[in-house]
Amino acid sequence: MNFNELVEQCEVSLFHIVDVKTNYTIAKALKLFFQFIDATIEFCFIYSLQSVKCQSVLIKLSLIMDIVSAASKIIDQNSAKGVDDPFYILNIENVKHKYEIWKEKIPRVVPYYAVKCNDDERVLRLLRNLGAGFDCASKKEFNQMLDLGVDPERIIYAQTAKQVSHLKMAVDKGIQKMTFDCPEELQKIKKLHPNAKVVLRIRFDAKSSFVNLGPKFGCNPVTEAPNLIQLCKDMQMNLIGISFHVGTATTDYKVFGNALDAVRELFNFAETLDMKLNFVDIGGGFMGGNTELFDNIATTINSALDRNFPSEDIEIISEPGRYFVDTAFSIAAQIVLKKKSEDGQIYYFINESTYLSFCYYTDKDKLNYSVIKKSNLENHSEKKLSTIWGCTCSSLDKIYSDIEFPELDVDDWIIFHNMGAYSRTISSDFNGFSNRSSYILERNEKSSKKSFTVKIIHMKIDEKFI
């Protein structure tokens, strides 16, 4: 049995009927669940898998059970009040755990959290308390962080096309670090904020990324960057360093090493002009759910930093967003209509939308979900070709199409996992719909036993999710 087969076994093993009124079925489901746990441990032992990966599997499965249990309780409580709106569940401990991993794997790099990714105040407060800085791009984001007591020195204005009123606020609030990538932006900063600590953003795209930032941001590191460094000297601007962003959710981890090599060349060029740079921003785009990939990226970054910037006098930061919050949020949505299409597919309409939380989440290959059924407990295991539609009147509001999905019914709930990045912040109120409710997952650490209040669980997970 390989790892993918183990995951497939997980999918089968965790599809059980659990009636909260029947102790026997609860016990039966939990027994089957822990049998799977035992099988996982045995698998890890036999195949000599790293204990860390084995532990990760067990923790993730336990966490999903907790999330679904919490969602079930929230659904019941809301139903008693006549509330049937979608909601988020935040596992704040997951954010803390990600920060601890970051500091362990890339200790020289200070994370400046990208507020645009998810501005949940509980996340912002936690990261502030842990010592993170913040990547902001607007007056609203400035105010969010300053109102939380964040020192302006822990904010970088990472916006290469600044609105004048926003730049003036940065001046008034004492925010000094800011990026630019062209002469025109540098001249604007010189006029309105002559004492700014400017950071030159270069373009260094990865070969493969979910979102390629392309020509919109950054200058060419070879043909344009040296001229802009010279311009900073001529204009007597305080150029402190170089930044880059390789793209969102890239799997090309080697690009970080190549980009840092290019940054070193620009540091060397600045030295020929008697300019001493001391700041490097390696950007964001790190995925939060792929431990192996992050390990490879961390190894590449550490090696490139040791090679190019061995001095501790160089300040190294990054702008991670999805890394911290992607796996920390789940969304619960209810099926409000079920019908069959002409070609035999099942159409599900849920009270969520691509205009709400699913703008970036329509890739069925990355779909991770659990299911809570409210009725019709029979014939639940067979999967059928299905499409999930959003709640708005837009014909473009299709969330997932042509997916193999367990047959569900109206009033059943789907728990979508890994929904923390660019869901809340991009969400609109189009057509009068919204998803503003958010609950924090509370785990009873004092109890050695876990209690589950789940009616039916179906899980689909993939290796990267674990």
UniProtKB/TrEMBL annotation:
Q: Which keywords has UniProt assigned to this entry?
A: Lyase, Polyamine biosynthesis, Pyridoxal phosphate
Tell me the GO BP annotations in alphabetical order.
putrescine biosynthetic process from arginine, via ornithine
Required cofactors, per record?
Answer: pyridoxal 5'-phosphate
**This protein's record includes keyword DNA damage:** no
Q: Which GO terms describe its cellular component?
A: cytoplasm
Catalytic residues of the enzyme? C393
Q: Which PROSITE patterns match?
A: ODR_DC_2_1
The UniProt record lists the Orn/DAP/Arg decarboxylase 2 N-terminal domain at 94-325
Which sequence positions carry the modification called N6-(pyridoxal phosphate)lysine?
K116
GO MF: ornithine decarboxylase activity
Q: What is its EC number?
A: 4.1.1.17
Instruction: Show the catalytic activity.
Output: L-ornithine + H(+) = putrescine + CO2
State the pathway, as annotated in the record. Answer: Amine and polyamine biosynthesis; putrescine biosynthesis via L-ornithine pathway; putrescine from L-ornithine: step 1/1
Q: From what superkingdom does this record's organism come?
A: Eukaryota
Cited Pfam families: Orn_Arg_deC_N (PF02784)
Matches recorded under CDD domains: PLPDE_III_ODC
Its top-level enzyme class, in one word, is lyase
In UniProt terms, what function does this protein have? Answer: Catalyzes the first and rate-limiting step of polyamine biosynthesis that converts ornithine into putrescine, which is the precursor for the polyamines, spermidine and spermine. Polyamines are essential for cell proliferation and are implicated in cellular processes, ranging from DNA replication to apoptosis.
Q: What binding partners and quaternary form does the record give?
A: Homodimer. Only the dimer is catalytically active, as the active sites are constructed of residues from both monomers.
Q: Could you say which protein family the record assigns here?
A: Belongs to the Orn/Lys/Arg decarboxylase class-II family.
The protein's name in its UniProt record: ornithine decarboxylase
Organism (species): Chironomus riparius
